[in-house]
Amino acid sequence: MEGGVAYEQGLNLKATELTLGLPGTGETEGQGGVRNNNKRPMPTSETNEEESQALKAADRGSRAQIVGWPPIRSYRKNSLQEKKDSEGEASGMYVKVSMDGAPYLRKIDLKVYRGYPELLKALEAMFKFAAGVYSEREGYKGSEYVPTYEDKDGDWMLVGDVPWDMFMSSCKRLRIMKGSEARGLGCGV
Amino acid sequence: MNYFPDEVLEHIFDFVGSHKDRNSVSQVCKLWYRIESYSRQKVFVGNCYAIGPERVAERFSGLKSITLKGKPHFADFNLVPPDWGGFVYPWIEAFARSRVGLEELRLKRMVVSDESLELLSRSFPNFKSLVLVSCEGFTTDGLAAVAAYCRQLKELDLQENDVEDHRGHWLSCFPESSTSLVSLNFACLKGDINLPALERLVARSPNLKSLRLSRAVPLDVLQRILIRAPQLLDLGVGSYLHDPDSENYNKLVTAIQKCKSVRSLSGFLDVAPHCLSAFHIICPNLTSLNLSYAPGIYDNELIKLLRHCHKLQRLWILDCIGDKGLEVVASTCKDLEELRVFPSDPYVGQAAVTEEGLVAISRGCQKLNSILYFCQQMTNAALITVAKNCPNFVRFRLCILDPTKPDAVTQQPLDEGFGAIVQACKDLKRLSLSGLLTDQVFLYIGMYAEQLEMLSIAFAGDSDKGMQYVLKGCKKLRKLEIRDSPFGNAALLMDVAKYETMRSLWMSSCEVTLGGCKALAKRMPGLNVEIINENDQMEFVGGCDDDRQKVEKMYLYRTLAGQRRDAPEFVWTL
């Protein structure tokens, strides 16, 4: 969510980070992610309020995946998961690629590439051109052709400006523009 | 009133609709009890183990419709092991034996076998309406029996059930003579559907008002169905994948334009982005919109759609709408009464909405009375503002994805925020809490939440005092469910008579011990105190060791039926 400001102390991003370890391993505080039978010490009336707060925070802070949380029906959870799985495995992420002057378009699967360098190399090989050197300030220098893409909002953007993941989720199609046309495209956003 | 003949009293009671009121009526005197009992047609049993089916059939000889609920609410979140119970078969069997003229059966969180569906379809010639919500245990073979043998079937409504799919022939089991369908909802089915049979069924059902399709129904079939059924009031779209330039799409647009009566829209179980504009034309008529199963719709598509929905009263949506999208809802949907925002990515633990979206909604939607909101974070200031803007909440359920997260700005517990909600919302009946919370919030709840009937607590509170405040203060409490909170025997045993005024209490991962539960069971024979002992965590030893054995899951409920006989091994009734 772009709206909120990140409160570094409060967000505890580490707790929700997906890792390969068991929940709770690698955490210095607390007792691990999956809730077990471990008994919290029962605060008596003499217990210092702050102490028990800290205890509870530590105990709870390191949860990664809690059974039955968030409280949504299994039916709903399963159906969202199924959708993610089927999108992930089945079709890949194919987008059309056109090049100015070329008689027909190609299609590539974005999921196959791990980042911009690989993608650019593949495009260069496919269409037999050289993209030049990318810099944030000047775009692609030293080339007649410039790789661009159409995003979700219908705008034409320069390939390489946004993080790869964001590019993957917003790219609808690619177009390798002739250098003269591309000269207005700076840093897309 | 003794001077009136029975028929007059009966006629007067006909005007008394709600279950609560009819229950009150029946307690006035023996005469009223008798007349009310034989004239009552609709019965509601909130806990299927609170009473036996024979007794229900005996008391309500005019019974036509029954609603039954089985498993505890937390079963929805996998906290109750399978095979716990909640079987509907004994009810159907008992009613069949007693020749109840059953016409309507509504079940929630129950285990429904194919045998029970078959018995149901053969035992009640006037059976008209089957509604199953969050149930399991049946397959499409059971549905085939219902389709084939319930000759007067008007309503078959399957909501969020776990159904084993044996492929789509059940639809063809509706006989050609069956023309009585008014409502058909099979959106939760996962398998293939006999599409021609579906089209023929729709074609011969002129009274069909509500139709919710599953993912297996593609766009071209949808289009043909809509042409046949322009009288629909409620539509659930199945699969919505198409090429925007195709002829099918154009035909669909034409078909949708004819559906001027649609007031409720849902589904889009498989959807390609950029294509909802076909529905913009019916949006101005919609009062209910459920897009919570459609993660494929991007936020700007969603917003474009919502801008047309001026009359919306009920909206269920995914959090990818974002705070900005909720602002659009706030400025467009002035009649909004119920809002549910679900997490689109529950596994990752990040939600796309924050307190800002909620505040925006509260400012724009003055009629809001029911909310379920999954969010990334919350603040006391936001909750206080919401309470001021919307004092009419009847249901308020907030779920912060990190369950013990404090106020995102001040790092304080959220006691004050929830306190403001309960103080302002005098009609609040249902409340779910989350975030960092101390005993203080329960003090507020006990003080102000006078109408509260259901309270859900997770990872909250500091001591027994928290639970005690609630038990003491909330006079109308019916259901209390608590997980992972430090409440123990002192709270549990403070006022044991209270539990007979309630439907049920659930406590899991709290501090209650076996000794405490046994003591409670001993003092209150009118309650079933059940311990769920998964994985043989506990031993049923007597004596003082009981007080050291913490109970992982306890579920207690008042009952007239005594200990249940269908409990599995891992459930002990004390």
From TrEMBL, chain A:
Region (Disordered): 16-64
Keyword annotations of the record: Auxin signaling pathway, Nucleus, Repressor, Transcription, Transcription regulation
Pfam families xrefs: AUX_IAA
Compartments, record wording: Nucleus
Domain PB1 residue range list: 92-179
GO biological process terms held by the UniProt record: auxin-activated signaling pathway; regulation of DNA-templated transcription
Comp. bias intervals (Gly residues): 23-33
Cellular component GO terms, alphabetical: nucleus
Signal peptide annotation: none
Keyword Transcription listed: yes
Function as written in the Swiss-Prot or TrEMBL entry: Aux/IAA proteins are short-lived transcriptional factors that function as repressors of early auxin response genes at low auxin concentrations. Repression is thought to result from the interaction with auxin response factors (ARFs), proteins that bind to the auxin-responsive promoter element (AuxRE). Formation of heterodimers with ARF proteins may alter their ability to modulate early auxin response genes expression.
Family in the record: Belongs to the Aux/IAA family.
Assembly, per entry: Homodimers and heterodimers.
Stated name of the protein: Auxin-responsive protein
Organism placement in taxonomy: Eukaryota, Viridiplantae, Streptophyta, Embryophyta, Tracheophyta
From TrEMBL, chain B:
SUPFAM superfamilies per record: RNI-like
Record bears the keyword Ion transport: no
Source taxon at top rank: Eukaryota
Location in or out of the cell: Nucleus
Protein name: F-box domain-containing protein
Molecular functions (GO terms): auxin binding
One GO BP: SCF-dependent proteasomal ubiquitin-dependent protein catabolic process
